[in-house]
Specification:
- The structure is a single chain.
- By secondary structure, the chain is of the alpha+beta class.
- The chain has a single domain (2-258), classed as Ribosomal Protein S5, domain 2, CATH 3.30.230.70.
- It is built from five helices and twelve strands.
- The chain has helices at 2-14, 96-112, 144-158, 203-206, 236-258, and strands at residues 31-35, 43-49, 52-63, 74-79, 121-123, 127-139, 160-165, 168-178, 186-193, 196-199, 211-217, 223-229.
- The strands form three sheets. Strands 1, 2, 3, 4, 5 and 6 form a six-stranded mixed sheet that branches.
- The relative contact order is 0.18.
Length: 259
Amino acid sequence: MYNELRSHVLKLLKADTRLDGRRATEYREPIKVEQGIICTAEGSARVTIGGTQVMVGVKLEIGEPFPDRPDEGTIMVGAELLPLSNPDFELGPPSIQAVELARVVDRGIRESKAVDFKSLCIEPGEKVWLVIIDICPINDAGNLFDASALAALAALKNTRFPKVEDGKISYKEKTNKGMKVVKDPVSVTVCKVGDALIVDPLTEEEKIIDARLTVASTADGTLCALQKGGSMPLSVEDVEKMVAIGISKGKELRVALER
């Protein structure tokens, strides 16, 4: 089955077409970003890319800062891949897929310095805000990396701090203070299948890719993070082409974020 699927996909790609009729570097439609969909979270968003839907919620807690960064808060990203979104997912401890998904989203936000961590400081060396980002795919039709990264960014921009009285958080009362998001890193995952490079893979296409590279870039085209996946190596030329595609296609996803 694998060989037949791969042979069929490669044959289509030679004619610059895909299983669903798209071109190699074309995203599915619609690309939709919805914010503020979970009333019990401090920030939330749902992103739709074609048939893929991902929901992200942001919770805020007060904790101690890291010793080497006494005046900075931090983010913690987690992902839960439930069978309701894909029958291949199983209940239980976080899978390798879930850990990698969370790591890729975390890296794009952290390395771009999208969040002003110093603004999360309450008392230097004592108390800071901890930003917990939970990723939950609703329907996995492929390309969870890009959808999750976009949803996480949208949820952060939607975040409002809860009221704090006598050192205790009142989660039922939100203030007008928003998260200080200073950059908008958008991630695009470029996949290599044979000699072809594609974006926004379907779940069927993800099964036969040789390698992938998730490219996170900011609005001005600055490269801020890379994450390699897949079993096959990439040449310098491959990486250069994939980065160029990632930065270019990132502009399309950013339009949906700003819409």
